Amino acid sequence: xxxxxxxxxxxxxxxxxxxxxxxxxxxxxxxxxxxxxxxxxxxxxxxxxxxxxxxxxxxxxxxxxxxxxxxxxxxxxxxxxxxxxxxxxxxxxxxxxxxxxxxxxxxxxxxxxxxxxxxxxxxxxxxxxxxxxxxxxxxxxxxxxxxxxxxxxxxxxxxxxxxxxxxxxxxxxxxxxxxxxxxxxxxxxxxxxxxxxxxxxxxxx
Length: 205
Description:
Largest sheet: none
Helix content: over 70%
Distance between the termini: 49 Å
Radius of gyration: 17 Å
Structural class: mainly alpha
Mean pLDDT: 87
Order of helices and strands: HHHHHHHH
Number of helices: 8
């Protein structure tokens, strides 16, 4: 993928995830600085872990853009806080967009470093989901990643579609679009129809 295009996608994903993190921090009545940190960690947490595992330069340390767009995201939430903080659909929209874009980014970056596709799919899931895990821990919520909600599963499914498209000889853009569309579709269905994975119950439950 062209580096400029990859950067644009990553910035858009950063904005989407930062807004979702800041919005959740606002619902917990964090101050502006606390909300900024939660938004930043949500946006860069997964990608940071990915780059460490890939032994690659950590992406947000290469440019100040990611810190800046998180600040702009904070300003956006402050200005439109009345509609954003109370609107669960807005949170889910931004969270889903960020998730889909970051899965694509994680896969693309892993393949660019010549890792096999199964590693790339795992890195896509980590890039998309682990920032949200850290966010939920910081705001004292049970991480969505570990609940029955279709979240990490959507990342893996998107990665699987990416792999199938690659094996079928699809273009790079079709791999990216189908992967992102799969993540968004599964998250939408999970929210609309309350799809859940089976719960691991205790014997006494």
